[in-house]
Fold each of these.
Amino acid sequence: MTPTLELGWRHRSRRILPVLVVAAIGLAAVACGDDDSAEPSGAGGSESGEGGEITVAIVGNPQMEDISALTPDLFTAETGIKVNYSVLEEGTLREVVTRDVGGGGQQFDVVMIGMYEAPQFGANGWLTDLTPYAEDDDSYQFDDLIPTVRDGLSVEGKMYASPFYAESSFLMYRQDVLEAAGITMPDNPTWDEVAQIARTVNTDDMAGICLRGKPGWGDLGASFTTVLNTFGGTWWTATDDGSVGEAQVDQPEFKQALQFYNDLIQDAGEDDAANASFNECLAQYQDGKVAMWYDATVAAGTLEADDSPVKGKNGYVTAPVKETDASGWLWSWALAIPQNSPDPDTAWQYISWATGPDYIKEAGTQVPGGWAAIPPGTRASTYEIPEYQEAASAFADATLEAMEAAPIDDPGTTPRPGVPGVQYVGIPEFQDVGNRCTEQFSSVIAGQTDIDAALSACQDIASQVGG
Amino acid sequence: MAGAAGARLGVGERRWVNAVLGAVAWLATLLFFFPVFWMVLSSFKEEQDANTSPKLLFSPTLDRYHDITSTTSGLLSFREAFFNSFWVVAVSTVVVLLLAIPAAYALAIRPVPKWRDVLFFFISTKFLPVVAAILPLWILARNLGLLNTRLVLMILYTGMNLPLAVWMLWSFFREIPRELIEAAEIDGAGLRGQLASVILPIALPGLAATALLCVIFAWNEYFYAVQLNPASGSTIPIWVTTNISTRGNFLAKLSAASVLACVPVVLAGWLAQKRMIRGLSMGAIK
Amino acid sequence: MQLDTVRQQPGAALGAAPKHDGLHRPWRQRFPLLPALAFTVLLTQVPFVMNIWYSLTDWTIVPPTPRTYIGLDNYRDLPDDQFFRDAARVSVVMTVSAVLISLVLGTLLAVLLDRKFLGRGVARTLLITPFLIMPVVAGLIWKNQMFSGLYGVVNWVTARLGLDSIEFVSRYPLESIVVVLVWQWTPFMMLIMLAGLQSQPAEVLEAAKVDGASAFGTFRQLTLPHLRPYMELGTLLGTIYLIQVFDHVAVMTGGGPNSTNIPYFVYQRSIGGGWEFGKASAYSIVVVVVSIVVATIALRVVSRLLRGEQIA
């Protein structure tokens, strides 16, 4: 037995060594003759095809997926400009884009940013002013943009990002369930009315209402801040020059709003509320586990899609209010050109197509979801397309109404610091404060933290800003 | 008879005990594997089915796999991500082994003075939170023009896995009987010869485990990859996360992407575990 | 006894290699180590030093302010930061429980899978799979499909047993994360233990059997001591990796008083929204210093690994 074994070991080691040597050579070859498909960033319109090549960073939502699939046929074929998309998850997109744009990284020719960042980055001088491009470009139809959306992306009249997709918030509800309970939803309801309806229709099998509870300035933060606004509360006061004043988390209105929100969830809210954001509520609503849902207007497109179990059963009404006239939020994913981009003209050509009225018309017949799945909320002309009016008849009017009424300049009962914003405060620190405070509030919703402790912790966090 | 920590039982009893223990092993395996099984199941579902009450019976579809593997020009395709991942992982693992095997030799078999401090230094390099390291690394990579290249990940993953490889190989090399090394030296073998004839064959299970772990860590590494290579040179983990959306359910698609992403590493795992067979070390050099 | 011949004595004995021997000139001894050492020093110390530099400034990117040197101010504020202390507490609990539980489970599984049985290769490969799944995906699958109060498999099973559904991730965030971590890292421990078991030569076990030892006795007196350095190795490596857990926290709970650990906390201070690189770097340096202190104690005092003790 021993001789065979001996041979076995030596035989094997003879095979290992050549492999290692080959691998080492391969390493040298690969490491040196690297990357033709992985060149240090496509930024800069390098020539490939007649028109050039650009790199665009986007978030992976359905409308963005659609346009990235259609770009080769609808855009590259026409203009010869090749578009390379980097699809990033929302949090990562924010990290990467902020660092790139703020640090002069030049990794991207066009970046997708939100309404929160656009005015701030614009004011910092990190973005190219798009207004001259937009005004000179006839096909873009600058005046067609919905005014609130355009204002939300502008600073002092200069538009720094062009809206691709926009949403507000409203209340969606199961008409059949409310009818069966003998309830009629009023137009422009108040939060007290909605809370009462929710508690009335709440059963073991079907919760009254689905409200976001997941930590995050854009999750629970967005939903709760609109409630806070309309309850007369706010995060900070504003000094005369618009900068941050005192933290207002310890004020009675703030506690009132949070208490109301939490009580409604505990009494009539969805399961696992502390983990619920848009997707979780969507799943539960479609499953018939909740009767009402306060969230983004874009949800309607999914609820009324052909394969939706609740198609045709829903009513849509404005976001509930208390002390203000309107409370729906305003959000947009928009395309911007970083300041030191080497080829802003090519970048604008892409933006003009992607956010122009023609793409919307073309997309209607080509995207898998049909007319109801086109990017909503950015242009008035969208709502005049007959096919869209038909496909989105259940919610198109409500959406347009919400977009136009979003109180971007005057969200609450007191002035806010920073650039305008409804469901956030337009200061750079809000992202962090919002994240950490909503962690505390979400913990309250989960029953893990006492509400006063959470408010006190949040006041500490918020007080570290400003001064 | 090798491989069984046998007992002095009768033949019939031994078979019974073996059967029971084998059954227990399979029970544990299936329990652990269940969530993975569920993920594979989800990959064949419609999103409606994947985001509702657990369903074992449903009409399966390959649509999710079609969705994620359809190649659109301008989007990161599975093929491109796989190609990038494959090269980055293969090269970094090979380099790690090339560097770590001699280092482990120098720390275990003929230890240098202060070998303890060297070992400690290696492990201490992993104390810095990854999130802190990314900023200097990003700045360095940008200044060297290495952003969005495969090379930067190859370098980073090598550095990331070296401490692990050095420590693991060191602990396996320590096992090797002194007499065998000395016998090889008497035969005139230098470092390379000793490695080939004595060390690597005996430490093969440990070597396989180390290589496998390096492959796994490099293959699944997401943070550095997405921060440094978002635009090009993107790897499989980035490709998997392109399926995550905040405005629509995606668990079925994500499951399908994850299944595809796991297949190569499962193969590597299969290969590695085949090398993990208890051997007869004393017989090697006689 | 045969067992004696198999024992080796690294460290203590090998370290005293005679220096007059022609083969043992010091540079020749050190040479195999140099490439790995040089590579590591270059790649890891430069970012570390840069972090020290950042921690002495007040660098923030958003809002953009010029970076000015402020000395140790960032460190001065640290001890009062209650959130940092919470994160440290969560980190310790999360890491210790995950490491210990996965170590025990991994060892048990390795022992089970060491023996021959039908389909052993397949079982081993299947058992590795939890470790192969990306942390982001694992976190999402467990949160939405296993733990979910409404739709989770776990609650589906407990409902069949007549129990109420539990919202695991909301009510027990830390425990839920630890469960997923254990699920993913037990295969890691198992791999190390398995390789350790395999490195115990079969002759030793044969000899013990011939000498009349029972299975349990063999295990207790031969295998377990043999495994002990591997368990310590697994603990060390597991701790190093589990301290850095980030994706699970981000994806399963999004943070919170009972789930934000140190990496997630530092992330929030820097690129996760705070954009205060000076402060974040200060936190990181503190973490490194504390880790070095703890590791030194653990390795030199508690562990056999670096004491150069015998194996087997």
Amino acid sequence: MQHEIVARPAASVVKLNLDAGETITCEVGAMLAMSTGIKVETTSGKKGGKGGGLMKGLKRMFSGENFFLNHFTADRAGQTLILGPQLMGDVVHHNLSGTLVVQGSSWLASEEGIEIDASWQGFGKALFSGESMFWVKCSGHGDLFLNSFGAIYEVNVDGGFTVDTGHIVAFEDTLQFKIGKAGASLIGSFLGGEGLVCKFTGQGKLYCQSHNPPSFGALLGPKLKAR
Amino acid sequence: MFDDDFLDGEFEGGVFSKDIDGGRAGASIRMDDLGLIALLSDGEQFFLSYSECNLEIGGASGRMVFCRNDDRSLTIFCEDKKFTAALERASGGELLERLEEINATGRRRSLAGQFGFWGFLVGCALLLVGGWYGILWGARAAVPHVPFTVDQQLGEAVYEQALDEVAQMTGEEKVTLIEDDAVRLPLQKLVDDLAVHSRMPQVKFQVLVCDTEIPNAVALPGGRMIVFRGLIDLVETPEELLAVLAHEMSHVTLRHHLQSIGESIGVIVALDILVGDVGGLVALGAEALRAAALMSKSREHEHEADLEGVRMLHKAGIDPAHAIGMLESLPHGDIPDALDWLSSHPDIEERVAAIRKLVDELPPRAYSPLDFDLEGLRAAMRNRVVPAEDAPENKDGDRKKVNAADAKPENEKREEALAR
Amino acid sequence: MEAETRNRPSFANIKVDLGAGDRIIAEAGAMASMSSSINVTTRWNGGCFGAFLRRIFGGETLFVNEFTTASQGELVLTQPMPGDIECIELKGTTLFLQPGAFLACEPGVNLGLGWAGIASFVGGEGLFRLKVSGNGKIWFGAYGGIFAKEVEGEYVVDTGHLVAYEPSISIRMGMAGGIFSSFFGGEGLVTRVTGPGRIYMQSRSLDGLAAWTNGQIW
């Protein structure tokens, strides 16, 4: 499978070239266009309906993804598929080998064989991290595509790194994170608008997004008429 | 000649020129008898002679003066008020005509701008003041429409907290209430008899007696009244006790607590609208600011309660002058400020004067003394049964119920209070 | 200190490499991510009272954050809306910014509040404007792309699209065309700017987005 991401960072799409038999699993609604030799299968779990789809589907819903997944398989060589997210934003490719914890709704597509499991991130983190309550854990090997609101930038953490709540896209599970205050004083953290931040420790790759939807919403919201 | 004078004048301004990196820079402007010299912070200098100087006025403030050469490749500009005057002197008449035009335009624009600005400021001030009073008025106007059950629920809700605060003041862990009927019932009757003459006769007041030597009484919204043992010991006549109770009952019937809450909410909402992030302010302790801002209200509330109390006494046929006696005999020692009755003792003279004024204005009527056995009440308090845990151990190591009179430390304090 | 504005013009953000002793000041909430070695201190945006004025009239935050580090670190600053960020170096010069445009600045820059005039308010450009002056870099952003224009003489900008301008520019409100085209031509009020000087415009406006969205909801 070859991929090419164009029109970054605001109108990003992924162009994929699939060979015969290659399958990619995507979130529902991600497909923009495809050639005729691609078959689509919609399941709540793995392709072919194997392996506990119902529970996983429900968990996925909580994480901001759809209950269903689309599996696109090329039945012959030289097939193309174009995928894109719903909102203006960026798409990035990650070569997965191990586990990547992805923020709810940031998962776009992944190669068949990568296990996608929504999981609970623990009470404190769920409430205060500014991210959705559930995370999507992707494990396995292969191509993985993430999307965001804002531009995605990659940080190779070695030691420690701080990310404002709402700006995390994904991180390798070799990293730990805890919620803490931005500055030295708790009050300063709130006054300074940073409030609580996520402090990562360890070694691993971290994907951040440059903008976060709630801030934009807070700016635009007051201008909209109430229903 | 006057060379030295205007060579001293330096003005802050700027230069537009293609020769500058970025096209413009801030500059220090001087004038000699030939023209304008602009000096940049990096040492570059630009010169514009008066003969090739074209003047324009404009800019965001409307008062910025531009000195430009004919092909507009160089512009020296300045906003300083004294710039044109200095330019007039320095150029020695060459630019006179043009300067006069500029000055006229500048003055006109300046006036208009100033008018707008000051008008806005005055408008803001009026809005703030009006808004402030509007909030207070709004809170007050809204209160009568709130049903009394809200006061009662509020009283329920703050009851525990109020007891805790009292405990804090007395330095004890928990507040002890004197439950003895011999103590409570006479007081309850006293209050019930007076309640008939209040603004809201349907309110049922509930009297509780708190076992502490602090001389005070507190009314909670809804009608609960806490009378402190110290007050009963302190008053000289039963009428004085009644005066205090009347004052406290007035807080309830005038619904002062609701008003204070309404005003606080109003202020917070206003701040929220204006500033948008009250959370941060609260974290900063703006709570304290708000409480301080509203504290003046409590003086007004006290004043109202004083007058209403007087009115109630008068209606009940008791001489309201006793309220004055009560105030004047208050100990001015260190009483915690939080206590309701004594909350603003520096104003005691003011309050006394206000009460006296109202008393003088009341229609004359025959007053009778209050039929209340104060000594009996005090005796009942002394002889009350103290709960076992508080009783001192006797020789056998058994804890027994004892009479309050035998509980040593209390005795001494009570005598002190009576002696004051 | 090295600063780079990335991902222009749609999701512009500033990547700052701070060295020991470097300082950068940003409005509250601007930090997206930072190295652990960076310290944040929060203070009032120009004194308590000034901060209030700036918040209510300047669209700025009550507090600003100052980022420093003892060794070195990387800091990413961003703005709430998707759009462009422009960086200007002030050399003793002054710039006026629309409410909400200010993002960050170097320590040598002063932030003040200037009176914009009732006309400006009527034209939707705000009653006050933020005045940045001094020496150092300042970053400001807007919804949409930002482009600069050197103005000589008169120029017309649609209301809501003027982000920043130099003090040598004079602003007047006016109508686009006659009354008819103003109301039905969808242009309404416009801002007439007179040079000499430079203005910065934004290619989109939040009010435009809000109007469109409202139209979809109703």
Amino acid sequence: MAPARTIPSPLVSVENEAFWNAAKQGRFTVPTCAACGKAHWYPRAICPFCSSDKIEWRAASGKGTIYTYSVMRRAKEPYAIAYVTLAEGPTMMTNIVDCDFDALRVGQPVAVVFKDTENGPPVPMFKPA
Amino acid sequence: MTIKGKAYIAGAYEHPTRHAPDKTVAQLHAEVALGALKDAGLSRDEVDGYFCAGDAPGPGPATMAEYMNLKLRHVDSTELGGTSYVALAAHAAEAIALGKCDVALVTLAGRPRSEGQATGTTPRLRDPNQPEAPWEVPYGMTTANGYAMCAMRHMHQYGTTSEQLAWIKVAASHHAQHNPNAMLPEVITVEDVVNSPVIADPLHRLDCCVISDGGGALVIVKPEIAKKLKRPLVKIIGAGETVKHLAGGTFDLTTSGAARTGPIAFAEAGIAPADIKYVSIYDSFTITVLMQIEDLGFCAKGDGGKFVSDGNLISGVGKLPFNTDGGGLCNNHPANRGGMTKVIEAVRQLRGEAHPKVQVKNCDLALAQGTGMQLGTRHCSATLIMERE
């Protein structure tokens, strides 16, 4: 298992601060449109599907599967970047952590885990379920 | 309205440098501009339209227009990343068709090699106003990883292999051996590629393009002017452009924007993929080529791995000769933007001026295809179809 790298802090904005406030309490929320019912990613104030502004931060299961991944072998501390398809529908960019990079595969079930960043809120990452 | 037959590429010039610590970016832009004008047989003072993208120093077209002392009545600085110049050639044709300009100049230049950029393996800086930045920056997204994730998914979905991707680099190397300016002129094998170090799984070092300084330019003119010049007539007959993105988290990473721009361009040109004699395909990585070849309809979706194997992209050997200058994979990738050189090599092929060892016989129809920015997140695609008259 590779040593953990320093994770850059996410930029908190008025549009996404509710997500980060929940993250600080260990809660993983997914923006979901009250008008069309669809969850989306990355989070935004206007629904990308129906253009409604009735976006709610709904508690998510934190479960998903690896859609694709790639290990950055050239970094001082290699890391696995991935897209994970959430049980709630959308596919999100993330890192796969706490795992053997050589054992990763597309389709693998994973679960959310929050990881501390340099000096901002923790960010959602995933580990093998 | 169509651009079909409304404009001709009269001048094309590729800077011979691959390493230019002794020149500025502005100087390189001006040198390629003058090179393309000389190629066309036109003078700087005849330019009345200027087209550039994000590599031009300063915001928009103003800085370079001043440096070159151009007197313009039409400008366009649409930024589509590395494929900008494929789209700008079409924009020039649009402007000419509308009478907005008669002689359009398109330039590209940059020095990432001299400036020591680790182009593909370190995360790029973002504008803090980019709304996706918080959801990507913490994860260390690099250029190589983005394309690698497309490759990984393509392998999962269609059974594509590293050996099949390697054939794309091998074909490029067969062409590069005849290009005295190519950075990687040695002919290599599939084993060489798959045995090179892994950069970002599943892509190896030799799946990646080179990093080079340099540039290129095009001069595009109205038919009346083209017909008075002494150069072979290369007519623009079709084009398409789009943006493909992650669509709220509902995307298919195995498909590029070429799936949209290819059919648009073919419809405008009134031809089919089977009519094309030569293709320039943006080759930031081997997977970039494979996906665009499928999406343009040169083979069925998912069959790209089989299609590119066994030398099928090598001029004189296979069915679809591609990137006969060696492309970004072996020749050059000026300013980390491969769209310009894609159009230039297509023009050489249509004129019959490619290297004799790679010149496609009776090359009357050619296509230049590019994707700009990041295939693994948001990218722009542009397709340009040209005909030798």
Amino acid sequence: MAARPPADVLLVVTGAPFASDMLTTVLRLVDELLRRGRSVLVWACGYTTMLTQAALGAHKPRDVDDWAARYPSTAAVVSGLLAEYPALFGWEVCAYCAQDRGAGPHVPGVRTRAPSRIGTNVAAARTTVYIGGA
Amino acid sequence: MAGRYLAVVDHAYRGGPEVQFCDLFYLARGLHRQLGGLDVVLRGPAVTYAVDTGPLPRLRVGARHLDLPDPRRSLRALLAADSAVSVDEPALRALGLTPDRVLPGVVCRDSASLTRDWPDYEGVWFL
């Protein structure tokens, strides 16, 4: 896989999903930056590593109150962004956190990286935003 | 209230695009159906779940638009299923909100009365 150029913005995401508005904030930032032509790299740590598992499939489980409705999984949302912005967007998963939680394998395009990679990413990025809450 | 359960909700902001339709009150509706009755008490920041608002915007993510959790819609469904929903009025006022802002059918009560009912329930659960 070809090396990706340094990101304009690196988002280090260590908080847990399903517990706050963290992922809303992350995706809003990603969407707006990509629309402005900025490159974005998400570094997913902690329970955020669960969001891109291939086993999640394309959709969330059915809504028993609205059986016909279909809702995309978080893995599908990330996959969609990777397909839409192949030159600008990347999503990397912390190998330690993923292994520690049994998270994986991940959808194609999501890279699993050693924890030691985070310093390299921060050094390379023009701007780093740390979104914690773990 | 015999045979019914009470769900106390203190925490708000429980996820967005990862949750979508499957919010806290989706769970509450399921429990309400399975347990033969579940009432809900909202306290702390969770009181805002019962405050009426305009339509929620969808979250734009690339080419997609995602439905974020809609707690008002979920609470309306609970109320329609004969679940009693109460709000801690002091918590509401502490946020600068007033009882006229809550959804029709939701009852505002003082903090003490919210716990007075606990012995009458089959169980009190903190969701």
